Every structure is written in structure tokens, then in C-alpha cells.
């Protein structure tokens, strides 16, 4: 790919130097038509001719042959794919990047910024709509403000009020002012957690997920047959978070015992993992395989795998993110994810390629299965849980015709005429 | 005859301020701070008007209102709803539940007094 841009750079440099094509051709001893083919990347160039052209243009030959970063080309492709109502000339993309590296960089940077902002909207939308802690905090602040406003207005009225009432209102005002200061500080601290610091909001699942993330989703103590007590549950301050983490780590230890790491490594060849084949090879169920694949040391799989576990109400019980993969943490996720459709067909293994609608149009290979939890007594209603392994598909520009379309949540999903839509999208076209 | 207002609000200082304002206006003010048994309290108190907070312990004000309107004799009772959530969606929900007036926090004393006077006047005419 890099060679194909050399001609474009020669043309750009020639134009900067103010040389006509025929002039440059004459100086290096080739015909103008041949130089024209070179400049349009239709003839490869190297060796002495390249050195001569570089000398005439007063640049290092490497400057003409140095390729554009693959990431830039990739970012431009993504920007083109995400464009709404505007068809970009993708065929001429490399030429564009070669001729205008600065503008290409700006475009790629803007696209990355849009993607980041879109993620922020998703997060805040989810949090504002479904976060009970935030709703309660806002209610606390506004109620206290209402009390202060009302009380202060009474005290500010002209004329005397009874001393008993006046004293009482002064006391209330003082209490509410203190309370407002505290609740405002707590609210700001709560909202200001975007720097990735450990979550201190006290929601057990969030704390557990932060703990797993800090450990890289891998626990060498348990790989070596260690006990649960060998794992230091640092940072899990609440007993609820401790209990949730212990439950997950028990599963981890059992999975590691059933599928020893060295044997898993041997079983994984260069191709993408085949969970069903692994289940057969290790004589374990698919759920065990999906969990195990998600908790392998970094670098074992070609790309980091995501994992989601939910119950039959759709409540997320564990969430391990993967690059480009987004699922609302507090409910109202797109019901078209295989994680949820698996609940319609318990015990049926599902493999589905999905494309997540949005600017990134990220694609994933998803494996999911819903299965009942162990019964505690005869005749009890089965309690189902669904597990989904998410493997990002590397080539995001490959055609998406065979991929099922899923969104993040209806509120920020651009898909029209969707049978699963719960509410209108807030995204206007072109957002 | 004394007019009676039932104030269902779990913020004691809001309760105190509104009680003061309405007592001064000649209202007999009764208060309650729970959602769970709020309907029973309203049925028993037989007020001329109810001021109802949305976020109440035990049961939301929205559910209280829905249940209240199930009682035939309570269909016309003026209910002023107070809430910290002023989105149109919440307003629509309140209207569907049968609210008479919807007011978002933080409100002014004048707004509360005007709403109470208006609602009572409308109820007296009908």
C-alpha cells in the first residue's frame, strides 16, 4: 500500500516547487507522459529515477516513499463509512491521504472526537435515565433548594412573624444550607469520575467490575489451583461487593480447573476460537468455555474479548468491555443482542455476527447461550441466565450485509422501522 | 367553615414552610410523610385539597394518585403535585394519573399559594 502513494507525493512536491510536469520530466530524462503515469500512481517507481526526482525536488527520497500510517487510512475509512448523506470517494482515499496528510489528520482527529463524544452521550444518557443514585441525589438537591427558597422567602417578607416561627425557620435554613452543601459536593464527586479512578459510588457490581478490570480480568493465584482466599479483594469495601466478587471468583476457579491454562493455550490455534469445539475437547458446557475465554491473560486471544452475563429480566450481572463494544449498564439495552435473544431459546447455542449501529459501525462475533441455574429444590421454577462472549472483528470495513444490526439503546439508535424500538431516538440525522 | 389541605411530603422543612404559609391563609393543614398508606390517609382525612410529593418513601406519589382516582368520590379532589423532575414525560405521566396541577421544585411560595387558591376556587365552582 505504501508504494502506491509515492506518485501522489511526487506530484504534491513538484507543485510546491512550482515545477511543471514536463520540466521535471526533462530534468530526470523521462517523458512527461511517463511522469504523469507515475504521479497518478499507475507506474511504480524506485531506484535511480526516484533518487533523481528527489534531488530535483530537493527532498530526501524517503520523504517520497514514506507511507501514510495505516491508522490514518483506517480512520478515514471509518469517517467515510459513518458519513450521513455524503458519499466519500473511498477509491481515492489513499491518494487523498498522500496529497493532503495534514487535512487527512484533521479529518481523522475530528472523527475520533465525534466517536468519543458519542460514547459520552451514551454514558450520560444511560446514567441520567436509569441511575437510581443520580435520580435520588438530584431529588435531594432540588428538594433542599425548595425548602431553602420557601423558608427564606417567608423570613424576607416585610413585617414581623412570631418569634417561635422565626427561630424555627432560622434553624431550618441553617440545616438545609448545610445539607445542600453536602449533597451538592456528593453529587459533584459522583459525576466527576470520568478520570477512570476506582468507583466509589457504592454500587456493588460497579465496584466488582472495577476490581476485575484492575486485575486485568485474570487471577494467576486461581490458575495455579489456589484458593479463593489467596485473592486479595483490595478495594472492595462493601460486604455486598465482596459477596458478588467471591461468587464470580468461585466460578473462575472452577472454570480454570476444568480448562487449565496451558491446555487452553495449546487448543487455541491461530484461527479464531471455536467455543463449541473447545467445549467438546474439555468436556465442559458452553457457558464455562465462554467465561474462560473472556478471562484469559491478555494476548492469549488475538483481540480482547468482552463478556456479559445477565438474568432473565435483562439485568446485567457482569460486564467486561471489549474495544468498540457498548451496552448500557443500567438496563434498556437493545434487545436484539444475542445475549437477550438467547433467553428466547434456552440451551440453544447462538453464534451471530453483529454490527453495532453508530458512527463506529463496529462488528462483533457473538457467542451466547442461556441456561438454568442449578435448582435448589425439586419443582422450583428454573432461573435462567444468559452469557455472551463478544469478539471484536478486526476489519471494520468489511461488508456488513451478513451482520445483524444492533443498537446500544433506542434513545441513541439511528435505526428506523425497528420492531424492537421502545422509544424514539434523540439522534437527529447527521448527529 | 375551615378549608382543609392535606400535605403529603417527606421533607420536613418544606412541610413546615408550606404549613406556615397555608395556615396564615386560613387553611387547616394536616401532614403526612409516607407513600405506602397515603391513599388511606386521604380517604380518612377528607381534605378539600391535596399537595402531593412524587418521591415518597414506600410508594411514589404517582402511584398514590392513580390509586386515589380509582375511588369514585376522589375523582374530583384537587391534587397539586410537587416534583423534582420536570420533564415533559413526567408531566404527561402525572396528567394521565389525574393530577390537577403539576409544580416542579424549587418552587416559589407565591406559586404554591396561587395554585392552591386557583384549584380551590375551581373545585368550589364545580
TrEMBL record, chain A:
Signal peptide (residue range): none
Any one GO molecular function term: DNA binding
InterPro entries: Cro/C1-type_HTH, Lambda_DNA-bd_dom_sf, ScfR_C, TransReg_Diox_bact_type
Domain HTH cro/C1-type: 10-64
Keyword Calcium among record annotations: no
GO CC, any one term: cytosol
Pfam families: HTH_3, ScfRs
Top-level taxon of origin: Bacteria
SMART domains: HTH_XRE
Alphabetical keyword list: DNA-binding, Transcription, Transcription regulation
Protein name: HTH cro/C1-type domain-containing protein
UniProt source species: Ruegeria conchae
Lineage start: Bacteria, Pseudomonadati, Pseudomonadota, Alphaproteobacteria, Rhodobacterales
TrEMBL record, chain B:
SMART domains, alphabetized: REC (SM00448)
Classification via Gene3D superfamilies: 3.40.50.2300
GO BP term (any one): phosphorelay signal transduction system
InterPro entries: Bact_response_regulator, CheY-like_superfamily, Sig_transdc_resp-reg_receiver
Pfam families given in the database record: Response_reg
Span of domain Response regulatory: 4-120
Keyword list, A-Z: DNA-binding, Phosphoprotein, Transcription, Transcription regulation, Two-component regulatory system
Source superkingdom: Bacteria
Molecular functions per Gene Ontology: DNA binding
Residues where 4-aspartylphosphate is found: 53
Name of this chain's protein: Response regulator receiver domain-containing protein
Amino acid at each position: 500500500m505504501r508504494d502506491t502513494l509515492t506518485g501522489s507525493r511526487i506530484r504534491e512536491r513538484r507543485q510546491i516547487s512550482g515545477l511543471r510536469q514536463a520540466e521535471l520530466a526533462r530534468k530526470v530524462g523521462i517523458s512527461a507522459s511517463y511522469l504523469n503515469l507515475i504521479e497518478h500512481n499507475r507506474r511504480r517507481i524506485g531506484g535511480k529515477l526516484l533518487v533523481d526526482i528527489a534531488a530535483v525536488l530537493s527532498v530526501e527520497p524517503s520523504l517520497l516513499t514514506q507511507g501514510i500510517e495505516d491508522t490514518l487510512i483506517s480512520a478515514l475509512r471509518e469517517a467515510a463509512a459513518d458519513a450521513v448523506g455524503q458519499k466519500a470517494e473511498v477509491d481515492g482515499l489513499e491518494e487523498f491521504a498522500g496529497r493532503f496528510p495534514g487535512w487527512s489528520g484533521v479529518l481523522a482527529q475530528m472523527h475520533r472526537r465525534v466517536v468519543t463524544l458519542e460514547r459520552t452521550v451514551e454514558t450520560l444518557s444511560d446514567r441520567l435515565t436509569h441511575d437510581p443514585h443520580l435520580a435520588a441525589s438530584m431529588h435531594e438537591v432540588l428538594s433542599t433548594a425548595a425548602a431553602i427558597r420557601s423558608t427564606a422567602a417567608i423570613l424576607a417578607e416585610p413585617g414581623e412573624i412570631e418569634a417561635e416561627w422565626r427561630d424555627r425557620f432560622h434553624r431550618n435554613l441553617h440545616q438545609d444550607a448545610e445539607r445542600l452543601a453536602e449533597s451538592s459536593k456528593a453529587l459533584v464527586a459522583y459525576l466527576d469520575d470520568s478520570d477512570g479512578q476506582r468507583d466509589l459510588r457504592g454500587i456493588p457490581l460497579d465496584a466488582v467490575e472495577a476490581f476485575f478490570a484492575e486485575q486485568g480480568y485474570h487471577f494467576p493465584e486461581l490458575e495455579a489451583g489456589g484458593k479463593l482466599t489467596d485473592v486479595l479483594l483490595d478495594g472492595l469495601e462493601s460486604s455486598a461487593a465482596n459477596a458478588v466478587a467471591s461468587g464470580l471468583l468461585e466460578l473462575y476457579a472452577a472454570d480454570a480447573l476444568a480448562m487449565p491454562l496451558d491446555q487452553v493455550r495449546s487448543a487455541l490455534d491461530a484461527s479464531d476460537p471455536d467455543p463449541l469445539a473447545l467445549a467438546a475437547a474439555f468436556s465442559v458446557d458452553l457457558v464455562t468455555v465462554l467465561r474462560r475465554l473472556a478471562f484469559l491473560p491478555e494476548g492469549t486471544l488475538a483481540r480482547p474479548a468482552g463478556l456479559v452475563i445477565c438474568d432473565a429480566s435483562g439485568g446485567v450481572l457482569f460486564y467486561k468491555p471489549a474495544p468498540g463494544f457498548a451496552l448500557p449498564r443500567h438496563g434498556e439495552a437493545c434487545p436484539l443482542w444475542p445475549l437477550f435473544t438467547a433467553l428466547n431459546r434456552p440451551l440453544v447455542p447462538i453464534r451471530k455476527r453483529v454490527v453495532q449501529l453508530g458512527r463506529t459501525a463496529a462488528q462483533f462475533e457473538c457467542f451466547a447461550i442461556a441456561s438454568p441455574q442449578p435448582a435448589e429444590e425439586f419443582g422450583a421454577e428454573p432461573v435462567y441466565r444468559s452469557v455472551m462472549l463478544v469478539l471484536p472483528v478486526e476489519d471494520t470495513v468489511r461488508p456488513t450485509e451478513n451482520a445483524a444490526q444492533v443498537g446500544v439503546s433506542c434513545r441513541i439508535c439511528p435505526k428506523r422501522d425497528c420492531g424492537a424500538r421502545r422509544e424514539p431516538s434523540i439522534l437527529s440525522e447527521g448527529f | 367553615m375551615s378549608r382543609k389541605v392535606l400535605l403529603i411530603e417527606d421533607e420536613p422543612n418544606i412541610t413546615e414552610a408550606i404549613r406556615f404559609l397555608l395556615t396564615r391563609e386560613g387553611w387547616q393543614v394536616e401532614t403526612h410523610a409516607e407513600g405506602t398508606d397515603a391513599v388511606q390517609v386521604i380517604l380518612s382525612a377528607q381534605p378539600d385539597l391535596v399537595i402531593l410529593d412524587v418521591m415518597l418513601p414506600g410508594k411514589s406519589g404517582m402511584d398514590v394518585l392513580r390509586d386515589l382516582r380509582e375511588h369514585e368520590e376522589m375523582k374530583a379532589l384537587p391534587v397539586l403535585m410537587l416534583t423534582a423532575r420536570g420533564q415533559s414525560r413526567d408531566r404527561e405521566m402525572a396528567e394521565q394519573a389525574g393530577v390537577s396541577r403539576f409544580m416542579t421544585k424549587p418552587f416559589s411560595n407565591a406559586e404554591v399559594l396561587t395554585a392552591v387558591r386557583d384549584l380551590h376556587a375551581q373545585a368550589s365552582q364545580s
